[in-house]
Amino acid sequence: MLWLASPQQSKTKPPRRQAEFVIQVIEASSAQKAPNDAADRVPAELKTLLRYARYGLLDSAFLRGSEGETHRIALASNLNGELEFRVRAGQEPVLMDVDLEVTGPAVEKSRGPKLLETTAAVKSGETVVLGASRMRGGENALIVLLTARLLP
Amino acid sequence: MSENRLRDLLAVLPDEDESAARAARARRRALARLGAAAQPRKRRLWAPALATVLMALGLLWWREAQRAEPDLAQPLQQERLELHWVLSDGTRVQWVFAQDFSL
Known about the structure:
The structure holds two protein chains of two kinds. Chain A has helices spanning 2-12, 44-49; strands at residues 18-29, 54-66, 71-75, 79-87, 95-103, 114-123, 127-134, 140-150. Chain A is mainly β.
């Protein structure tokens, strides 16, 4: 029975898709002396909406993984990221729901504070801008440029 | 001085009541003129002060509008807010505002 059930199961469950992600982590800052090497990567229109003066690249990472799995990645010197994606079935163009979480430095073996936690619906090849900042005021913000590409 | 001469002189001068009435009229006219003169001066001081205040308010408003940190998103008493918007080139932006965000 088990032997017979196995091929049926593989028919009902589509194979897990693979995708590649480029994650650029940028710190936006109001400080005049902060690095500004990522200013060109942030869309100009977005910068006009933000009040930050400088945009520094904290890290740039490449990730390849399978659908439905949680992928962990160390970002910058002390940040951690978790990414998981699912492909929406029967949609054209193909859309991926990408869950991304970026946490700050771990404090005494416990997880660091959540800096960014969001789910973005991304088309293959598209770059979305994910940002996080303090509700009121705040001198800096975290910007993640996420580019996703679904592998054939 | 003869008595007739003195009487002539006294006849030319106004009597005491008439002098007081003239003085009172003159005082009223002077006060009225003073009031009229003071009125425009007050207005002259008041108008630039109002203009300055309005300009200051306008400048403050303009500065706030320029800052426009997705101040779109300065919600009141909320712990977390996520905004989605699309830039003119089609780039999608998702921004999370959190009370406890600290980088």
